[in-house]
Design brief:
The chain has 2 domains: 4-226 and 442-454, Glycogen Phosphorylase B (Rossmann fold), CATH 3.40.50.2000; 229-438, 3-Layer(aba) Sandwich (Rossmann fold). Helices cover 44% and strands 20% of the residues. It has helices at residues 22-34, 70-89, 100-117, 137-143, 161-164, 170-177, 188-201, 229-238, 240-253, 271-284, 306-326, 343-351, 367-374, 407-419, 422-438, 441-454; strands at 4-10, 36-45, 54-58, 61-68, 126-130, 149-153, 182-185, 205-207, 210-213, 216-222, 257-265, 292-300, 334-337, 355-358, 383-387, 400-402. The strands form 2 sheets. The chain has a 10-stranded mixed beta sheet, sandwiched between helices. Strands 13-12-11-14-15-16 form a 6-stranded parallel beta sheet, with helices on both faces. The chain is globular, with a radius of gyration of 23 Å. Bound molecules: GDP-alpha-D-glucose. GDP-alpha-D-glucose (GDG) is lined by residues 19, 21-23, 155-156, 225, 262, 264, 297, 299, 340-343, 346, 363-368, 371.
Length: 465
């Protein structure tokens, strides 16, 4: 079997991958079972950047990392990745910074990542590149002569053609993706939007799972990312820390029903809209007052990007408003935590919450929705209220699917969830859980790598158009 080389913006943590969430767990597993190399940014910003990789072995795994200079970090990571691609791919053209300097920095860092990896590669390696930070990486590596099999997986949505074309470099970016042999997206809709761009904007053609353009072809497919559903379920039910958090939460709640939101603090997650929907529940359904308690966990991420700082202030204001309007001496309607909770404790919190409220305005997949379901007690499960704009909604039709912009609609769904009968909750949970177990993270990884193994090596492909 050929060696697997995973390339992602950040590498690790390997020993405690669970703390870093689903993706790190998935990648560690993929690499552990086959051995291999995991390569990316070290997370360090050093005055002179770096032009060679630091390589270390951790068990069967080799980690290779490279540092960024302050300028590289600002242009590539804060700039093009997080102030341009992230909002653009989530349909927030109003927040998208179209700055040529950022784009050039992004290309430079993608080229540097490729240059530093090149001497570490073996001819029969299989290379799996992850996410929007590295759209141009494959193209750079091919230009340096690499002919290994190389696949790319996009964790965030692929946007509609009309949105993507607002970015001045859209053609070079999409052309660059044709350097890969397989393109993986989260949902069928993402594949469809990619095909639409290629056919209607770039003048290519699509034939089944193959698209032809720029004198090359690439295969594309939806590989919805999963979680380790059985493992997470076991943690929620039996782990010591999870149990402790569960008991603590239950004791604090008494007879009240907990509604839970868990997100990285991000404007795509629809947190202000969600708080407004909760307020609407209290306004329209007086029986909910004192009977529910909403806990929102939203740890800061990307704190040095300006939009994220503004959001924090907005949320503080909204939470204060709800508590000021509806709170009583012995009831705080909304608790908002701006710091991370340990993963095992989080499993306990999910299990102690009768409603999981997951309402992103746009999301590639959303693992929180899956973790919430996996953490439930199947005898007495809670109800998931899920945005139709999360990729996860495609696989989870038994959730209460809502439009997060429809504040009243979300409030009504919360009220339905509050009163849902046990037999219906069990039925929905059973169907959701069965799919989560079937389409788990191992399935995602194997599916992608099987497809990549089946394509002819890049070097052997005749130019087709
Ligand atoms: C991107 C795409 C796609 C959150 N708060 C805490 C915490 N988390 C963990 C969750 C979950 C992960 O972070 C968040 O994953 P999501 O999928 O919900 O969202 P993104 O971070 O935006 O991820 C997304 C994903 O990539 C994978 O492809 O699903 O669409 O945007 O695992 O549990 N974990 C801990 N404490 C917290 O406070 N321990």
């Amino acid at each position: 079997m050929s060696r697997l080389v995973v390339v992602s913006n950040r590498v690790g943590p390997v020993k405690d991958a669970a703390r870093a969430g689903g993706l790190a767990v998935a990648l560690v597993e993929a690499l552990k079972s086959r051995g291999g190399l995991w390569y990316g940014w070290s997370g360090k910003i050093e005055a002179r950047g770096g032009d060679t990789a630091k390589v270390e072995d951790v068990g069967q795994l080799t980690l290779a990392t490279v540092d960024l200079s302050p300028e590289e970090h600002e242009e590539y990571y804060n700039g093009f990745a997080n102030r341009c691609l992230w909002p653009l791919f989530h349909y927030r053209t109003d927040l998208t910074a179209f700055d040529r300097r950022y784009y050039e920095g992004y290309r430079r860092v993608n080229a540097k990542f490729a240059r530093v990896l090149l001497p570490l590669l073996r001819p029969d390696d299989t290379i799996w590149v992850h996410d929007y930070h590295l759209l141009a990486f494959g193209d750079e590596l091919r230009q340096m002569g690499a002919s290994q099999r190389m696949g790319f997986f996009l964790h965030i949505p692929f946007p509609a053609r009309e949105v993507l074309t607002t970015e001045p470099h859209h053609d070079t970016m999409v052309r660059g993706l044709f350097a890969y042999d397989v393109l993986g997206f989260q949902t069928e809709q993402d594949c469809e939007r990619f095909r639409d761009y290629v056919v209607r904007e770039a003048g290519g053609r699509a034939d089944g799972d193959k698209v032809y353009c720029f004198g090359r072809s690439v295969r594309l497919r939806a590989f919805p990312i999963g979680i380790d559903a059985e493992g997470f379920s076991r943690i929620a039910a039996t782990d010591k820390d999870a149990r402790r958090q569960f008991e603590k939460a239950k004791a604090g709640l008494g007879d009240r029903m907990q509604i839970l939101g868990v997100d990285r603090l991000d404007y795509t997650k629809g947190i202000p809209e969600r708080i407004r929907a909760y307020e609407r529940l209290l306004e329209d359904y007086p029986d909910a007052r004192r009977a529910v308690s909403f806990l929102q966990i939203a740890a800061t991420s990307r704190g040095d990007v300006q939009e994220y700082q503004a959001m924090r202030e907005e949320l503080d204001g909204l939470a204060g408003h709800v508590n000021g309007t509806y709170g009583e001496f012995d009831w705080t309607p909304l608790r908002y935590l701006n710091r991370p909770v340990a993963r095992r404790a989080l499993a306990g919190l999910y299990r102690a919450s009768k409603i999981g409220l997951v309402t992103p305005l746009r999301d590639g997949m959303n693992l929180v929705a899956k973790e919430y379901v996996a953490a439930q007690d199947s005898e007495d499960p809670g109800v998931l209220v899920l945005s139709r704009f999360a990729g996860a909604a495609q696989q989870m039709p038994e959730a209460l699917i809502v439009n997060p912009y429809d504040i009243k609609g979300v409030a009504d769904a919360l009220q339905i969830a509050r009163y849902m009968r046990l037999d219906e909750r069990r039925e929905r949970h059973k169907a959701l859980m069965a799919r989560l177990v079937r389409e788990d993270v191992a399935h995602w990884r194997d599916d992608f790598l099987d497809m990549l193994a089946a394509v002819p090596r890049h070097a052997d492909v005749a130019v087709a158009s």
